[in-house]
Amino acid sequence: MLHECEANAQALIFISRRRLCNQASADTREAWKEVKEKVKSVDPVLASVMVPECIYRGFCPEFYSCGYVNTEEYAKALAEYRQKEAG
């Protein structure tokens, strides 16, 4: 199935914060990961800041956390994101 839309950089970042969250449905996350990969092929810097809310904020703002923030994978992803911000 093909879906076509237009979005600016800020919209892609904002949508990523919601759609890459583990609270989003698996189908939604997979579809948005495909969008992110397409963006990465033309703008790797933009794709690098298309992250879930917990990475952007540094903590999980959800009322019921999925637990991702307590994993080593999260710590690594957060460190990589913050390194990009500093650099």
Characterization of this structure:
With 87 residues, this protein is mainly α. Helices cover 61% and strands 0% of the residues. The chain has five helices and no strands. The longest helix has 17 residues, at 26-42. It starts with 8 loop residues before the first helix and ends with a helix. The model has no long low-confidence stretch (mean pLDDT 94).
Layout: helices, strands, pairs:
Elements: H1 9-19, H2 26-42, H3 44-48, H4 53-57, H5 72-86
How would you sum up this structure in a few lines?
This protein is an all-alpha fold. It contains five helices and no strands. It has helices spanning 9-19, 26-42, 44-48, 53-57, 72-86.
- Mean pLDDT value: 94
Portion of residues in helices? Answer: 55-70%
Largest sheet data:
none
The geometry reads as globular
SS field, number of helical segments: 5
Beta-strand content bin? under 5%
Structural class: mainly alpha
Low-confidence stretches: none
Separation of termini? 38 Å
- What is the ordering of alpha helices and beta strands? HHHHH
Q: For the CA atoms, what is the radius of gyration?
A: 13 Å
Number of strands: 0
